[in-house]
Design brief:
There is one protein chain. This protein is of the alpha/beta class and 248 residues long. It has 2 domains: 127 residues, Periplasmic binding protein-like II (D-Maltodextrin-Binding Protein, domain 2, 3-Layer(aba) Sandwich), CATH 3.40.190.10; 98 residues, D-Maltodextrin-Binding Protein, domain 2 (3-Layer(aba) Sandwich). The chain has 10 helices and 12 strands. The strands form 4 sheets. Strands 5, 6, 7, 10, 11 and 12 form a 6-stranded antiparallel beta sheet that branches. Strands 1-3 form a two-stranded parallel sheet. Helix 6 links the parallel strand 8 and strand 9. The protein is globular.
Length: 248
Amino acid sequence: MLRWLWPFTVLLSLSAQAQDLVLRTAQQSGSLVKYDPDGGPNRPGICMEILQAVQRLDPGLQFTGMEQHVPLKRVERLLADGLVDAFFCLLKSPEREKQWRYAPIPLYTIRHVIVQRTDDARHLDTLPELAAASRRKPVLVMRGTALAKRLLQADVAIAEVGSEREALQMLLMNRADVIYGQDINLQRHIGDARLGSKMKFGRTVFQEEPQYLALRADLPAAHEERLTQALRRLERDGVLRALAEKYR
């Protein structure tokens, strides 16, 4: 009996994948590593490339709304209000998991690191050390991110900024001494601005976190499974790992 059911189950799965499915999404503005409107077809951003890889793997699966370039807080509101169905890529937090779901396959991992001026001899290796240093000048962190909430929970005084580029300019002008952010984003902006001789990374990785595909809370389970199957295949084939290496 079970031997007859298994092929039937596979056929149902293949039939579901053959059906056209259109999901709403958006691009995050101000995050060039994720979505780079000026990066061209060879470097459009890691999250855009993952989305494109999913579409190539499952041609019946399409995404609309890519013309929307919205800031992170707007992305969160769209997800919470069910106005987008899926968003590549987002960190998890307890607050976020109350408002929407996540596909279980990690897309890539970011590291929490600090950046200082090269003439700053201090080693700030722990959150308590960051908290003490922040009493003199607040630590810069990207506005509205899960990283900002983590620093506040650790009693670190922060100043939120709109972009890594703005943070680096403030650091150059001595308006701040430390940036706390994602390694992959900071590396990109330091390289683009040719600030490698003026900026240095701290020697500590404070935390590692995977980015995930976020899904609106009431997305049908069959749609989530279809997306998960595609991501699982990309993970198994090494595509996700290769993309993460490409953007580091």
